[in-house]
Amino acid sequence: MCRVAEVTEPAELSVVHELRRAVFVLEQGVSEAEEWDGLDGECRHWLAWAEDRAVGTARLRVTGDVACVQRVAVAADWRRRGVGRALM
Length: 88
Fold this sequence. Notes:
Blueprint: E1 3-6, H1 10-27, H2 32-35, E2 43-50, E3 53-63, E4 66-74, H3 83-87
Antiparallel strand pairs: 1-2, 2-3, 3-4
């Protein structure tokens, strides 16, 4: 099982970026330019933690009265174990 917490510290945002880079850029081949869209500063971020490490992340972007969950990423060895569901 994992626990989910909202990111509140700059160091935690670095962990978010490390996990997203591992999943999207290195594993899935998404370009750095596409992944780092400049919107992180206007979003809220969450991390899923298990066994003392970050295993998942998601961000929420609110524009007017529309909220979008974006950049959901789960470490390969933690997929299909409910991490994405917990982040939602």
